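Annex B. Sample input.
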Amino acid sequence: MPMRCLLPLLFAVALPAFAAAPLATVSEQSGFTRTGRYQEVIELCDAFAARYPKAVRCLDFGTTPQGRPMKALVASTAGALDPAAARQRGLPVVLVQGGIHAGEIDGKDAGFLALREVLEREAATGALERLVLVFVPVFNVDGHERFGAWNRPNQRGPVEMGWRTTALNHNLNRDYLKADSPEMQAMLALVNEWDPLAVVDLHATNGAQFEHDIAIQVEPVHAGPAPLRAIGRQWRDGVIADLAAQGSLPLAFYPSFVTDDDPMSGFSDSVAPPRFSTGYFWLRNRLAMLVETHSWRPYPQRVRSTRNTVISVLEHIAEHGQAWQRAVREADVAASQPDAAPVPLTFAATDRVRMIEFRGYAYTREPSDVSGALMTRYDESTPQVWTVPMRDDVQPVLTVAMPGAGYVVPPEHAGAVAAKLRTHGIAFRELPAPLELDAQAFRAKTQQFSAGSVEGRQTLAVTGAWAPERRTVGAGALFVPIRQPKSRLLMAMLEPQAPDSLLAWGHFNNQFERKEYMEAYVAEDVARGMLARDPALRAEFERRLAEDAAFAASPAARLEFFYRRHPSWDERYGLYPVLRVDTAPR
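Annex B, continued. Sample output.
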């Protein structure tokens, strides 16, 4: 019998065995057709701790905007149920996170199932003696309680599920680096406290219809120190091999077409920016895995493949975690002693293409009489292997040299920036007295504000360069040293052209707004005086008139030519307020 026919039978046979088990979820009791409300998480958290008092601890690590507790279960049979004990015993910590998008709730039900089986020694036997599992069943708790049958219209089950975003409409998987939401701030406090070796982020996809049932992406693989990239590949490939042996059709990339709704456009891989989990944790020298079950698989199958993934993760980290933990500690030391090599901050696949075989379905592409667009319709009764292009030669696009010593944040921005640095566990110190600094300053050559709101912010993109300047900063400025384990994360926050920097997310927008002007009638007189006094300036102006038709045709541009060269021009306009220094200020 072909595997595609056997797979549903495997799931159908497996499910009834769980129905009568203690600590069974609403999902399990329903044959994995439903999922429970958040009250069930609260009750199960306490129930697991009561049933396994020496192996499970239930904790609150935050409160949502709507006042709900954010729950985590800590599990270990080595007696390490707090961060200090885990560090003392040298045990690797694995953080498994469900429900960051609360409609994609496979991780909650699969995680409870996997946890019970591991505690009962029915799976991953002995793993909890060699590691600590921190399980967050639902990250987006308020979104989870926005329950509805049509919250995920392109997803098969459960009958009802939660909502993608939080009560404040934050998409948490766009919030890792900017950390605007209370939920993310609570999660990062949990991360700082436990310092997990690996973070596993459980999702379900959107998108097309095909046979593949799960995708596993890991970083470091394309990014990060070479020793950690090797570990990332080992971990990813090991989990994928386990899933394939259990009947899944796993992928090592997110199956989103290069051209929307066009299967023959193929796929492209890359490194996510640090607003996403997998783009964030490699900057901390840690491992992250994005698990994406295929939304068109029935919910019982999605829960089962997610459960299998969690079990595989625990087995691999139980086996290799000590060695991997030594490698990340070495990466921390190396990041604290940076060299002159530029740091990559953005990545993209090159034009290099290879052809792959992809398990899809027969399909047609026809004009729609509803939308008028060319639409793809899949025939799930007819599996078909597609041969499609894959672009997975991922290379850095933006690389930036590290500052010699670090960054200086002026006192007027110190409070806001310090709060972000604390959220991410980045070290800094306050400068007690005013200083004159030989620094590097970044002046924007161009600046482009987003036309609309993005995650509640007006984003900003700039071009420009760092250049030496003598600058004065007042007492209360911050010095943020580059020589610390999270040096790459620091650069991702404070380098102005990094994709998720504080600047990019609009934290410094006011600094890039023009506030002062010269009236045109004043500028006319100023320009005539400057032309009369400065022959070189006159020659430059006349050359611009002759060579630049748009400039010559714009009265405002012609007057601004002189205003920008006049002492009244705001020298801080377009100046990024954070400085780079090559010598640590005293």
